[in-house]
Fold this sequence. Notes:
Layout: E1 7-12, E2 15-20, E3 25-28, E4 31-34, E5 46-48, E6 54-58, H1 62-68, H2 78-88, E7 95-99, H3 105-111, E8 116-121, H4 124-136, E9 142-146, E10 158-163, H5 169-178, E11 179-189, H6 192-202, E12 208-215, E13 219-221, E14 226-228, E15 234-242
Parallel strand pairs: 7-8, 7-10, 8-9, 10-11
Antiparallel strand pairs: 1-2, 1-6, 3-4, 5-6, 11-15, 12-15, 13-14
Protein name: tRNA methyltransferase complex GCD14 subunit
GO molecular function, one term: tRNA (adenine(58)-N1)-methyltransferase activity
Domain Methyltransferase: 91-191
Amino acid sequence: MIQENDRVLLAGRKREFFVRAGEGEFSTDKGMVKLGELVGLSTGDKVSTHMGFEFEVREPRPTDFFNYARRTGAPMLPKDIGMVIACTGMNKNDRVLDAGTGSGIAAIFFGGVAASVVTYEKRPEFSEVCAKNIEDAGLDNVDVIAGDVLEAEGEEEFDVVHLDMQIGREHVEHAWKLLKKGGYLATYTPFIEHTILVMDTAKPLFAEVVCHETIARELTRTERGTRPSTRVAHSGYITVCRK
Length: 243
């Protein structure tokens, strides 16, 4: 059931709006929605504008936060986040450390999977945005720390460490110390040079080091036919290292 100040997705006829339940009205091209009417509703319920246009009410999922939450930069794509989750076997028993929080999108996905997440963001103004996005997502198992991940403590405490940031050798070495035996380090790097640094630093430390280039293509279907989308297929490199 939707509560006061909850984030809500309004969906109707190829239109979507990311709103907050509570006081005031929200203007759409199909009329005004009274936000107070959203309180007490559930996913699948309908709300009407003053012009009689109906929107379906949906409780947002992590993919909706990727699409609509406030951003501090370009977040990881869901396909890349999914590869991190799959390749590390992230699960409900895991304690996860995330660094380079940014908007908090990856942390929101991880928080829906893992037992707990600690996410570090060095820039205070970014960590404030991240903390608000995570609060809006209703996650009480994700802690946001405004600080340098190199200050993180807890030797062999984490099951998964994820880094999406400018990575130096010291970050890989510190991640190794934080991981439990059998745990995983996963890094996202957009360029080959950064990827090579991660791999070369990790190989003497970790039992397994595997790098994946993440490529995905959407299909575009029209009356003329079906073909791969012209969007950029490559997004980055995911390096997965097991201690």
